[in-house]
Design a protein that fits this description.
The protein has about 475 residues and is an alpha+beta fold. About 30% of the residues lie in helices and about 25% in strands. It has 13 helices and 19 strands. The chain has helices spanning about 30-35, 40-50, 115-125, 140-145, 145-160, 165-170, 185-190, 215-220, 240-255, 275-310, 400-410, 410-420, 440-450; strands at about 5-10, 10-15, 25, 55-65, 75-80, 85, 100-105, 205-215, 230-235, 270, 315-325, 325-330, 335-340, 345, 365-370, 375-380, 390-395, 420-425, 455-470. Strands 7, 8, 9, 11, 15, 16, 18 and 19 form an 8-stranded mixed beta sheet that branches. A 7-stranded mixed beta sheet has the order 1-2-3-4-5-13-12, with helices on both faces. It has a two-stranded antiparallel ribbon with strand order 6-10.
Length: about 475
């Protein structure tokens, strides 16, 4: 593996060597660089991705980078649309894991803890949290599944589960084209009964406050006002997307040799984009992307119901809904590319033609969630973000594995790290793997890109109450 070399402020390079077709570029500040070992798994995974056929360089590592299955989480890999490959592992298990931010006109300081607790309970009654949670929307899961998989959030809004403005503020307007249910296995379809469920792992619902505004124009455009209550939804395609990734990793791993592709490992199993296996994966992936958009749309509907019950208020506006784990055909550097983002967020600059109409002047929001008592950020991408294929970090990034966090974080450390934030369980052991000390300092992560002008911070949100699903998804 090549030596990680500093090439500028917050920029590091793994220069092309050996089987690598392109360089790997990382964005790290001094604090984050000190946490990254020279021979770490995530660096090797970037080098492995840089060796795949048709990769268009550089492969990019975000400040929140950490080891994953195949491509590291916090990784971006672009491949040529013609002559390149698609890799299920470079998208990830939780296809279209993403975040949706809702803004309200409710001053957060008017809600005491009993009221916040009542809101949490009303939300939990409607939205199951944790591994294996089943939706209360059984009819939609059974009879309307094909419509959900092909039309995503759009199909739900047409049935009354939201309003048109929700779609106007959603990546791909809530529906990725090209979905074909025939590309999805029967086993995956059996796991598609989880609409309006949160899941476990790092997924959560957060009631927060707009603590600070740094870009007044963008904040006003995004309907964010200092002191107002916000709701952050972080979840994805649940077991459905996980099964699709599992299925196609096996398919691609077996088929790769037929195309003369040497794989560095099963996690980066890949096939030509225009092969039957590649086309089928993209069609199945689009189904999972649409399932996740629909999941967050239905959760929004249920949250609005909960707010109506407790506060008599349903005016919760979608700020934006953005995907983290996805592969899409995009134009960059004059080429049509398939951009794999795994634990990374698209952030189009102002004026870009693929921005929602309402956000052309500012660029659309990129939402970076924290962990329980850690702040979350709303950002925008700049012209400089073209260097990273218009991508930014998606969160803080782990510094401690789940098992290590459970082993090494004490009750005292946990309680100190979450402070006064309300949680949906009194059993701290159920949340140790997601405790703030298990993650990098999100301020370092966000500042890394802001300091070099790839992003512009719009607002910082501070959590007041967090609903976590226990168990790993």
């Amino acid at each position: 593996m090549p030596k990680l070399t500093k090439t500028g402020h917050n920029r590091y390079l793994l220069p092309r060597t050996g089987a690598m077709q392109v360089d790997a570029l990382l964005f790290l500040n001094d604090a984050l660089r000190s946490q990254l070992a020279e021979n770490s798994v995530e660096l090797q995974q970037l080098c492995d991705a840089a060796a795949l056929p048709g990769v268009f360089g550089p492969v990019v590592g975000m400040p929140d980078i950490h080891a994953g299955f195949g491509l590291p989480i916090g990784g971006i890999m672009a491949t040529r649309a013609h002559g390149g490959v698609v890799s299920a592992g470079a998208v990830g298990m939780d296809i279209n894991c993403g975040v949706r931010l809702l803004a309200t006109k409710i001053p957060a300081d008017t809600l005491d803890k009993p009221t916040l607790r009542a809101l949490m309970q009303a939300i939990e009654e409607r939205i199951p949290a944790g591994v294996g949670g089943k939706s209360r929307h059984h009819r939609l899961c059974r009879e309307g599944l094909e419509d959900v998989l092909t039309h995503g959030a759009r199909g739900l809004v047409s049935k009354g589960y939201g309003i048109r403005a929700d779609l106007d503020r959603c990546e791909e307007s809530g529906c990725l084209s090209g979905a074909q249910t025939t590309a999805v296995s029967a086993k995956a379809l059996q796991r598609a009964a989880q609409l309006s469920t949160l899941g476990g792992g790092n997924h959560f619902l957060e009631l927060g406050i707009v603590e600070r505004i740094e870009d007044e124009l963008a904040a006003k455009t995004f309907c964010l006002e200092k002191g107002m209550l916000t709701v952050l939804i972080h979840t994805g395609s649940r077991g459905f997307g996980h099964q699709i990734c599992t299925d196609y990793t096996e398919i691609m791993f077996k088929a790769a040799k037929n195309y003369g592709i040497h794989l560095p490992g099963k996690g980066l199993a890949a096939c030509p984009t225009d092969s039957p296996e590649g086309r089928n994966y993209l069609a199945a992936m689009a189904c999972a992307v649409n399932f996740a958009f629909a999941n967050r749309q239905l959760i929004t509907f249920d949250i609005r119901e909960a707010f109506q019950e407790v506060l008599g208020e349903t005016d919760l506006a979608v700020v934006y809904d953005v995907a983290h784990n996805i592969a899409k055909f995009e134009e960059h550097f004059g080429e049509k590319l398939l951009v794999h983002r795994k634990g990374a967020t698209r952030a189009l600059p102002p004026g870009h033609g693929e921005n929602p109409v309402c956000y052309v002047a500012t660029g659309h929001p990129a939402i970076v969630p924290g962990s329980m008592n850690s702040p979350s950020y709303v950002l925008t991408g700049t012209e400089a973000a073209k260097e990273s294929f218009c991508s930014v970090n998606h969160g803080a990034g782990r510094v401690m594995s789940r098992s290590a966090a459970k082993k090494h974080i004490s009750r005292e450390q946990f309680m100190s790290s979450v402070g006064d934030v309300l949680l949906n369980t009194r059993n701290y052991k159920q949340l140790l793997d997601e405790a703030p000390p298990a993650y990098k300092n999100i301020n370092d992560v966000v500042d890394t890109l802001a300091d070099i002008g790839l992003t512009k911070i719009t607002a910082r949100l501070q959590p007041l109450a967090v609903i976590k699903g226990q168990g790993d998804d």
